[in-house]
Amino acid sequence: ATTQLNVEWNGNINAEIFITVVTGKKLKYFTANGNSKSVFDIHDLPAATYLMQITNTDTKQQQTIRFDKF
């Protein structure tokens, strides 16, 4: 089973990250504070498809990435 979500950013980023189910329900919240790589603990999430909603707290840019946990 997947226990970690590894994310590599283009440069250092300050961001808020929500992990949600496809219906939009928020399950987890993480922050990235000036890092170029981040590791998030998702061991307690069951196998499913999720969305990672990222908001750059400096520029307010948002991005959503879909991922599957096995």
Describe the structure.
This protein has 70 residues and is mostly beta strands. It contains no helices and four strands. It has strands at 4-21, 26-41, 48-56, 62-69. Strands 2-1-3-4 form a four-stranded antiparallel sheet, with no helix packed on it. Strand 3 and strand 4 (62-69) form a beta hairpin. The chain is globular, with a radius of gyration of 12 Å. The termini are close together. The mean pLDDT is 93.
Notable traits:
70 residues, mainly beta, four-stranded antiparallel β-sheet, 4 strands
Percentage of helical residues?
under 10%
The succession of helices and strands, N to C, reads EEEE
Global mean pLDDT: 93
Number of helices: 0
If strands are numbered along the chain, what order do they take across the biggest sheet?
2-1-3-4
Structural class estimated from helices and strands: mainly beta
How much of the residues is beta strand, in percent? Answer: over 45%
The multimeric state of the shown protein is single chain
Q: Report how far the terminal alpha carbons are from each other.
A: 6 Å
